[in-house]
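User: Batch of two.

Assistant: Item 1 of 2:
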Amino acid sequence: MKMPSSSATDLEKKGMRHFISMKDFSKQEMDDMMELMSMLKEARKDNAIPQLFKGKSVAMIFEAGSTRTRVSFETAATMLGGHALFLSPKDIHLGAKESIDDTARVLSRMCDVIMARTNEPETVDALAKMSTVPVINGLDTRFHPTQMLADFYTIKEHLTPGKKLTDLTLAFMGDATDVCRSLLLTCCKYGMNFKQIGPVKYQMEQEWLDLADTLCAESGATYEITEDVSKVSECDVIYGDSFYWTTQMDEKEERLAAFMPNYVITEELMSKAKPGAMLLHCLPANDKEEVTRGALEGEYSVAFDEAENRLTAQMALLVYFTRKFVKEPTEETRVRHQERIEGFLNQL
């Protein structure tokens, strides 16, 4: 006979979901998340953020370094009245001395959310499989969903009056990175048109295009994968990302030769996009490589609004995925526990 659990936490949360990819959510759910972002951002402007994460903790697992992801989650938890724990490979035994499954089960009983930025997609999937609290994907080699939420919200903030997100075409300049893949799938799921503009060797893999076909059939969006830089003339949003990452340093020169100068976002290139087009970049930016400083500082650039909205997005995510499980005690219950514990302590 199995011993019944004595856990003080709810191990069977009805309707609990994880945030692994934006493609897993409907257009309405994405709109709901962005509406929550708007309200929280307004509250932040007024220095009146509701303490909707009070008494809660988010465990932040980082196998890779980060600026925006770490700072935004840690700050979001604090602003909402909660706490964030930074857990690097040096701090925990993830997948080494302790299995990923057991790590997920233990953290679930001590924290209210697990955020993981991992080197392998299997790691975040395994955490989600065994966790009894929501798992948020802070970036794996497939998807970057928290970036997507910030990106779509930023675009929405800067829309030309009378336009909707579904009226737009977004062009990603460069390699089929996790950000590019996430943009492809999120655009196709939401109903925004998408283009990847880059050399054939670095274009999107067919397995993701097959999935995009299915999503477009449902949403009415379109996508195009092309080498033709002149296609920016059809685009409302131009998006930049690094042409190489830290794990690709041995390919750096080859990659730069393939992408430069044709696919660099310059002031001249931005002038060829649609009137009123905006520039996004997930940062960090490599000046004079994928984007020039002049373009990044241009009047059409919203890259730093986009970066700030990572914080707005993380606040919304912490609330969105935990609020339904909050059990507010009555004042009678609070008083009963306080008196009982204080009574015991006074006798010691």
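Item 2 of 2:
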Amino acid sequence: MTLNTANLIDDRGYLFGSRLLTHGLFWMAYYVVFSLIWMREEHGYFASFYLEFLLLPPRILCVYCVVYVLIPRYLLERRFSLFLTSYIAILSVAASLQSAAIWFFYDGLLYPQSDIVFSLHYWIKNLMLINSTVVFIGAISILKHYLRLRTQLKSELQRRNIEQPLELVVDRRTYFVELSDIAYIQGMGNYVEVYLCNGKKLTTYSSIKSMLSRLTEGFVRVHKSYIVNTLHIESFSASDITVLGRQIPRGKEQTDHQLSTRILRLAVE
């Protein structure tokens, strides 16, 4: 039996839909991996895991402050100066906590006879180590915000039925035509003629098939040489379609039912 990944990870990226479980497993894996990475044979596994245990709380505190406070409140709102100053302040506090924890609970307990001096260089090193973790997780958070906003924007555009203008090159001049302004399109071999509602005609290099692929579902191919904008259809018969008073020949590409359904659906939307 195979495990369905859709049930394993939801659309927010959480295991089994649980944020708590996902974060807990991440930090557990982080703790084990970095304990093994920084392990030294002369100190042994206990010292390495103990050290990483001391380092983890300041890093977690800093990460969550940046991800859940600074990024949404300042960075995404383009308040860059506040974000930068707050980011530096939180990093400084976390580096100080980490340095103090190492000084008192690691060096002081495991190596009381060692001559270790607390210095600015030592503090900056801790700050940079914390910053690397924050940057990595912060980048993931920003990517999630970007993907979510892009999905929301796409849904909003679809909901409002906002259409991008059609770009046409005519006699080395580029035109941007609103789709609602197009009445119908006629294929002329390697060229197409785009007829606008105001009576203007634009001739551009393209095939009728290629042009149809650039249009929305409001346009339908009713003949091997014609595409019509269903928004402007006034009537139709078995042999022709009337679009803004102009008769367009009709082929067998669309049945009466299919054509009526598309016209009525667009009218409702």
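Residues 38-160 form one domain.
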